[in-house]
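Chain A, query sequence.
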Amino acid sequence: MGFFDHLEEFRRRLIVCLLAVLVLFFVAWAWAPELFEIVARPIKQVLPKGQNLSYTTLTEPFLMYFRVSILAAVILASPIILWQVWLFIAPALYRREKKYVLPFVGVGFLFFIAGCSFGYFEAFPVVVSFLIGMGKSFNAVITINEYLSTASKIILGMGLVFETPILIFFLARVGVVSERWLLAKFKYAVLVIFIIAAIITPTPDVATQLVFALPMIGLYLLGIGIAWAFKKRET
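Chain A, predicted structure.
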């Protein structure tokens, strides 16, 4: 395929992904208030009694429900998105490598959900508790859209980060990386991981960044094992 053929193929796959997100957006929109209650649970557990999130403009609640529906739609559409990613890269693979389609979509979805779950149940509550604790001497006025922005960034960010072993798997299969190369670059990987953790984490303290960085280092080490197990071998 030529360059423009690749662009056309990418456009088709992107359209399918957007349509999947759009359809699931309308499904999620019907449950938008309930979905936001789930997202808001970590902060409501640490806010002073009787205090709630706020909004400052008339359109802010509508935009918040719109954004939380998109967040849910992206998570629900992740198997379809992964399937389209596979269809885009499949022409570059050998026939024997195309048999990994179901493991790629299935395991990729599980890793993504695991990352989103880790972000929601573990990482995000740590961030919320730290930030609320820092401002306990003041009267908090936290807007719903500001809160949702932070939650979405952490939840989706961790979901994408947990795809690291899947990415390493494919790079190892096509011979781009090997377990020896990954081990040799481990110290640089740790540096990059802490940079990513600093970007995802809205707080500057090292303890909170470790909550993000340590699982990422574990995923990198898991990727090394995957690269060794599934590396491209001479035939």
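The two ends are 26 Å apart (CA to CA). Residues 59 and 65 are 10 Å apart (CA to CA).
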